[in-house]
Amino acid sequence: MDKKQIITIANANNGYLYSKIIKEYNIQSSLIGRLQKEGTISKVDRGIYITNQGIEDELFINSIKYSRIVYSGETALFLNGLSNKQTLNYEFSIPYGTCTPKIIGYSVKYVRKKTFQLGIIEVTTPFGNKVRCYDKERCICDLFIRQDSYDYEDRIYAINEYRKYYLNIKKLYNYAKELGVYTEISNVFEVIGWN
Fold first, then answer.
1. Whole-model pTM above 0.85?
2. With the C-alpha atoms ordered 73, 194, 189, 156, is the resulting torsion angle positive or negative?
3. Which residue among 32, 47, 121, 126 is the one 20 to 30 A from 63 at the CA level?
4. Domain range enclosing 35
5. Cα distance between residue 78 and residue 144, in whole Å
6. Of the residues 56, 77, 98, which one is the last residue of a structural domain?
7. Do β-strands 41-45 and 70-71 pair in parallel, antiparallel, or remain unpaired?
8. What is the pLDDT of residues 51-86, one digit of tens each?
9. Residue in 84, 154, 151, 93 with CA at minimum distance from that of residue 119
């Protein structure tokens, strides 16, 4: 494999090379070192490189570094189109008992293993990369589970956007039952109506 092929592989992945791709294509570390010296790629983090064509995407880079994370809270609202503002304080969830290094500048929420998997989907970041995130219904349930974590206006905006464009009442109610917020959610959606 030559340097040009490596750049083609990276550009096919939005400009990124990381451990999984490096192993998959059996790319030699000496070639990566040469590309770095030439300035064709830059090291973003341990085992993560980006070409000059790529755009640094913090959400994506963290999902590579910490493969078990799932974006949640205000970050998930933003990624799902349920928020009109992008948060600077990214939030993600991991299952209880998962050991992660201290991550400065991020809110880490520990979730019961029983409900951690509920609603995980893959979404596209604003820079075109795929990351794991909770779906819209899980986001709405989280608004009621951790009410103190959200501004009133943000909660209202998310509920109204969900009701107008994405409403799946059966799925929402199933999640609400599983997460223990069925009464709260059914009360709100019956008051505002779902049609």
1. yes
2. positive
3. 32
4. 3-56
5. 17
6. 56
7. unpaired
8. 998 999 999 999 999 888 999 999 999 999 999 887
9. 93
**How does residue 101 score in pLDDT terms, banded at 50, 70 and 90?**
low
| 169 and 142 inside one domain | yes
Paired sense of beta strands 120-124 and 130-134, if any: antiparallel
> Phi-psi category of 23—alpha, beta or left, where left has phi over 0 and alpha has psi -120 to 50?
alpha
Given a contact cutoff of 8 angstroms between Cβ atoms, the answer to whether 82 and 157 are in contact is: yes
Transcribe 28-65 into DSSP letters.
-HHHHHHHHHHTSEEEEETTEEEETT----HHHHHHHH
Specify whether the CB–CB gap between 47 and 18 falls below 8 A: yes
Same domain flag for 52 and 90: no
What does the block give as tokens for 123? 């979404």
Where does a domain end: 13, 36, 56? 56
CA angle 155, 93, 66 (to 5 degrees): 140
Residues 156 and 133 occupy one common structural domain: yes
> Count of domains in the chain?
2
SS3 percent helix, strand, coil of the chain, rounded to 5, is 50, 15, 35
Q: Which of these, 147, 163, 136, lies nearest to 76 by C-alpha position?
A: 136
Whole-number mean pLDDT of the chain?
91
